[in-house]
Amino acid sequence: MKDKLCEAFCGDLKVRAVPAGLAVSTPFLAPDGDRIGFYIVKENGFLRIEDGGLTLPTLEASGIDFRSGARAAALRELLGEYGVELDQDDKEFFIGGLSEAQAPAAALKFMAFCLRIRDFMLMTEHRVASSFRDDAEKTLREVLGEQVVVHENAPVTSALTEFPADFVLQASGRPPVGVFLGMSDNRILEALFMQMRARHEVQAQCAIVALVESGDSLSARVRQQAMNRLDAVTEFRSDEVAAAQRIRREVVGRAFVIQ
Question: Are the C-beta atoms of residues 168 and 176 closer than 8 Å to each other?
Answer without folding.
Answer: yes
